[in-house]
Amino acid sequence: MISDPDVVGLLYLVTIVCFIVALKFLSSPRHARKGNWVGGAGMLVAIATTLLLEGLENWGLMIAGLVIGSVVGLVGARTVRMTAMPQMVAIFNGVGGGAAALVALSEWHGATDPVWDETTSIVLSALIGSISFAGSVVAFAKLQELVSGRPIVFPGQNIVNIAVLAAAALLGVVALAGVEEQWVLFTLVALALVFGVMFVLPIGGADMPVVISLLNAFTGLAASATGFVLDSTVLIVSGMLVGAAGTLLTLLMAKAMNRSVANVLFGAFGQVQTAAAAGRATDDGRTVRATTPEDVAVQLSFARKVIVAPGYGMAVAQAQHDVRQLADLLEEHGVDVKYAIHPVAGRMPGHMNVLLAEANVPYTQLFEMDEINPEFPQTDVVLVIGANDVTNPAARSDPGSPIYGMPILDVDKAASIVVLKRSMNPGFAGIDNELYLDPKTTMLFGDAKDSVLKLVSAVKAS
Amino acid sequence: MTGVPLVVELTILVLAAFLGFEVIAKVPTMLHTPLMSGANFIHGIVIVGAIIVLGGADDTFTKAVGFTALVLATANVVGGWFVTDRMLGMFKRRPEPKAEKERRE
């Protein structure tokens, strides 16, 4: 048993240092994994210290909880496919928020005449934690395609959402005013859960990187608020570190789409776009040219320089391993192959990097948008695999386009472009892609994985 | 409760926010997914709160809530860590022999 509060405080400080070092090590892929081990060690110190605090009871439940949680976490983490990573991150984020809200609930239950700052922390922790939990579950369901990834909207949605949130906030004020009834916090949690669901439902799949980052920040802040409830600096600091990380990523993702965070969250993007697109004349006599795997294979084998621009379509089809196989084959032919990664390609920040890393593509071959854009004019063939809006030149040239101003990959500046696409359906933005009508562009229709496999055998044969 | 003054706690909070921004701004885009997953793991620290609540629970309601919180937080910690480790294990540099070949060219 540790009874000296100074010793406890010092041990928690060790944890804080470990977490900061872990985040610092993430600045390079070489040390990142080591950093995670340091973070893990820090967490073990915190858990051990807490378990050794004096006066803890309910050991049976304690051990059962730790074992059940570990098994669930371990099985989930080990069995999930890399393509399902976004929903896994979402759900682990949700359970953290849920835990923070529950801790707040029980503190409220056990509190006798809490002072205002304690009540404030309890209310914030319960509110933010519940929103994060419910929002993450909906994000999980959308990514897992249990519910439609398309925006779900109804008239007056934003007003209803604001009303629900306002009601929850009002209950928070009621609690602060000294009404220490149990129902106050329970109702608050219920309203926060409803808000969490309603606020993620209208957000389209393409905007998921922003939402997931934001929910991540929420859970961090909820944990931090819990730290104020329990007077625990380790919770305050760790929670805030996560809050900062999530906030920064949210802003980065929104910036990469040239939209404000508010627009992403309340704009119900897909809906607005469809209407905007419908008004534009697209049928001006230019046509889309379809091609065959054999033609593309010849094009690729005789190119000097090929850039692959992957998108969510590659993730859905789980084509990353076949894409690497194709790239390896081309390199054997002496072709220079690079990958162009748009910051919001996929469903979470850095999604494409993880998938390609899983397929053993060395990270030195992956290039961010700003690095690779000047290289497109010297490129013979660009292979666009399941990416749409992030390659749409309308973002540069058409002020009337909903995505106007969004930084894109300048694939249209290459000598020729091959687009691997399932069908002519528009992307999430719901607008036509000018790129497909470009005379330099040819389309290879079909599932990304099938198409790439056909390309692999065609290149082998040529 | 150790009774740290609120102002001190708020100071720590603000400093942590700035520190967080500084450290995280240096994480390259390539590692944003592991960063998110790693941050996910770190907020699992709420497990400390869950242990304190469950350890101090003396009625059924608090026990049930504390137990659920502990299960969720543990899943957060264990799952978050293993997912991050798995992802980071995949980031590899170009295999050495190939890199040498490139240098000779």
What is the N-to-C succession of helices and strands of chain A?
Answer: HHHHHHHHHHHHEHHEHEHEHEEH
Q: Oligomeric state of the chains?
A: heterodimer
Major sheet details of chain A:
6 strands, parallel
Low-confidence stretches of chain A: 269-283
Task: Tell me the strand percentage band of chain A.
Answer: 5-15%
Count of DSSP-assigned helices of chain A? 18
Principal-axes geometry of chain A comes out as: elongated
Radius of gyration of chain A, CA atoms, in whole angstroms: 25 Å
Distance linking N and C termini of chain A: 72 Å
Strand order of the largest sheet of chain A: 3-2-1-4-5-6
Fraction of residues in helix of chain B: over 70%
Characterization of this structure:
The complex is a heterodimer of chains A (462) and B (105). Chain A has 462 residues and is α/β, with parallel strands linked by helices. Chain A has 18 helices and six strands. Chain A has helices at 5-25, 32-51, 59-79, 85-110, 116-143, 157-176, 182-200, 208-230, 233-256, 261-266, 269-278, 293-301, 312-317, 320-332, 351-358, 369-372, 394-397, 448-461; strands at 305-310, 336-341, 366-368, 381-385, 416-421, 441-445. Chain A has a six-stranded parallel beta sheet. In chain A, α1 runs antiparallel to α2 (32-51), α4 (85-110) runs antiparallel to α7 (182-200) and α12 crosses α18 (448-461). The longest helix of chain A has 28 residues, at 116-143. The radius of gyration of chain A is 25 Å and the shape is elongated. Chain A starts with a helix and ends with a helix. Chain B is flat and about 60 Å long. Mean pLDDT of chain B is 87; it is low at 96-105. In chain B, α3 runs antiparallel to α4 (60-90). Chain B contains five helices and no strands. Helices cover 76% and strands 0% of the residues of chain B. Chain B is mainly alpha-helical and 105 residues long. At the A-B interface, α1, α2, α3, α4 and α8 of A face α1, α2, α3 and α4 of B.
